[in-house]
Amino acid sequence: MDQSKFNNPQSSPRLAVPRRSVSLEFFVGLFAMAGVGAAAYLAVGLAGLEFGTSDKYEIFAEFDNISGLKYGASVEIAGVPIGSVSNILLKDPVARITLKLTKDIKIKDDDIASIRTKGIIGDRYVKISRGASDVYIAPGGTMVETESVVDIEDVIGKVVHSLSGDKDEDEEGEKKPDGEKK
Questions:
Q1: Rounded distance between C-alpha atoms, residue 107 and residue 178, angstroms
Q2: What is the rounded distance in angstroms from the CA atom of residue 29 to the CA atom of residue 31?
Q3: Are β-strands 124-129 and 112-117 bridged in parallel, bridged antiparallel, or unpaired?
Q4: Which residue, 113, 114, 170, is CA-closest to 137?
Q5: What is the pLDDT of residue 68?
Q6: Sequential DSSP letters for the chain
Q7: 60/103 Cα distance (integer angstroms)
Q8: Which of 125, 122, 105, 123 lies closest to 114, judged by CA?
Q9: If you average pLDDT over every residue of the chain, what do you get?
Q10: Between 20 and 30 A from 65 (CA), which of 5, 30, 105, 127?
Q11: Bridge partners (DSSP) listed for residue 110
Q12: CA-CA distance, 138 to 92, in Å (whole number)?
């Protein structure tokens, strides 16, 4: 067999290479990359991650009871959101929450932080009531004045307990000297 015709590039037939142009595959790839980018942006936003310099600072507040307060809950002054709850930690016997606030809002040392409910059965949020002091809490400082959440279940339990306690005393009644009840 003659090997010379296989080694000679002149004698082998040439295949036509299709001309490259912007095609449907290019647009599908571009659309897929845009979709992945949008999904990544949403994932970072939902996770609450921040990159670069932040326009927020953190302070702490300690409460006896934060029942129903969740990460990401709003922090408000006069109904205007100024930040969010970024961490909740048990520092026995109190709950220590981290408030991430915008830098242009300064918290005074006599401001009162209280946990409130939006609507009748809505989400919990932190409400800050302004004080009259001129001294501000430094970033990383702790709010001293706090009001814990009023838990409806506890209130109802106390009312029921107090009513049942009164009923038990009435049933016992006062005993007569001979040991019989009135």
A1: 68
A2: 5
A3: antiparallel
A4: 113
A5: 85
A6: ---HHHH-TTTSPPPPPPPP---HHHHHHHHHHHHHHHHHHHHHHHHT---S--SEEEEEEEES--TT--TT-EEEETTEEEEEEEEEEEETTEEEEEEEEETT---BTT-EEEEEESTTT--EEEEEE--S-SPBPPTT-EE--EE----HHHHHHHHHHHHHHHHHHHHH-PBPTTS-B-
A7: 15
A8: 125
A9: 82
A10: 105
A11: none
A12: 24
Q: Is pLDDT of 154 > 80?
A: no
pLDDT attached to residue 7: 58
**CA gap 27, 37 in Å, rounded:** 15
**In which residue are the tokens 């409460």 written?**
63
CA quadruple 3, 4, 9, 14: dihedral, nearest 10:
-60
**What's the pTM value of the predicted model, to 2 decimals?**
0.61
* Average pLDDT estimate for 133-140: 90
